[in-house]
Write a structure and sequence with these properties.
This protein has a domain of about 110 residues: 2-keto-3-deoxy-galactonokinase, substrate binding domain (Nucleotidyltransferase, domain 5, 2-Layer Sandwich), CATH 3.30.420.300. The chain is about 35% helix and about 25% strand. The protein is built from nine helices and 14 strands. Helix 5 packs antiparallel against helix 6. It is globular.
Length: about 300
């Protein structure tokens, strides 16, 4: 691939990793790259060098027109390259408000997409709004709920092309902390997951969420006393936490068809949990939605300059 084939570069910059894609003029992927230099590993002064290490082969020769880079995610956080102010909901997931950086390396320009903010109840998102925009570009008439499973899962009510409201649950982070740093770490180290145990645990917390703390320790106790297998223990931990999340977000999914945008394995668990409650869910590819949203941002920027 020659650099002159690259019309623009798409970047999703998270806390622990960064992914980039070389795109042609038709928004098709020419190449991709990733690294572990996420926002959490960098000072603001280090972002430009980290990006160049990742995409240097895609940049034009010195003196040629710069290639535009569009980025979403934690690169625009307060601890990122530069803070991109939030846009208040209700609003479209993307808009004309962006943050532009003039890099020292003039072979590229850099545009950061802002996140979304909700005043009451207080909530924020960065990156997920781009995935929502990618979905709406594919299905512009959508009216319903989009859930984005991850470290901090988002539930968004979308109507008339706008994010009306959203709610964040720290389920993924809680799972990681409990699985890796609590007493449960001795019981849940498994690659496989017992779906029957998972479904039972979801139902358990949905019916009695106030018993969560006791149910969690029960995982360790049963492993010690009854030989609870690691795959079942891990499934129970996941099910208890996702069940608690579904109890908290019931107004979003009850009676709704839900769209899930996230990692395939995690999204499949959410679909299982929702199906057990009579809610249907469709899983969409998170990379495709991210690229679709970044392409929307590029077109919005092109429209402002034409």
């Amino acid at each position: 691939m020659a650099p002159n084939q690259v019309a623009w570069i798409a970047v999703d910059w998270g806390t622990s990793a960064v992914r980039a894609w070389a795109m042609d003029g038709g928004d098709r992927v020419l190449a991709d790259a990733s690294s572990a230099e996420g926002m959490g590993t960098l000072e603001p002064s280090g972002f430009e060098a980290a990006l160049i290490r990742l995409v240097s082969d895609w940049l034009p020769a010195t003196g040629a027109p710069p290639v535009p880079v569009f980025a979403c995610g934690m690169v625009g956080a307060r601890q990122g390259w530069r803070e991109a102010q939030y846009r208040d909901v209700p609003c479209p997931p993307l808009g004309p408000e962006v943050t532009r950086i003039t890099p020292e390396d003039r072979r590229f320009t850099f545009t950061i997409l802002p996140g979304l903010a909700q005043k009451r109840p207080a909530d924020v998102m960065r990156g997920e709004e781009t995935q929502i925009a990618g979905y709406l570009a594919m299905r512009p008439g959508f009216d319903g709920v989009i859930a984005l499973p991850g470290t901090h899962t988002k539930w968004a009510h979308v109507s008339a092309g706008e994010v009306v409201s959203f709610q964040t649950c720290m389920t993924g982070e809680m799972f990681a902390l409990l699985a890796d740093r609590s007493v449960l770490r001795h019981s849940v180290q498994a690659e496989t997951i017992d779906l029957d145990a998972f479904r039972a645990a979801v139902a358990d917390t949905l019916s009695d969420p106030q018993k969560l703390a006791a149910r969690l320790f029960g995982i360790r106790a049963e492993a010690l006393l009854s030989g609870l297998q690691a795959g079942s223990a891990r499934a129970r931990l996941s099910g208890l936490l996702i069940g608690l999340e579904l109890a908290a977000t019931r107004p979003y999914w009850l009676g709704q068809d839900v769209v899930l945008i996230g990692a395939p394995r995690l999204s499949a668990l959410y679909r299982e949990a929702l199906a057990a409650q009579g809610a249907t869910a469709e899983i969409l590819d998170v990379t495709a939605m991210t690229l679709g949203g970044l392409a929307v941002a590029r077109r919005l920027e092109q429209g402002k300059t034409e």
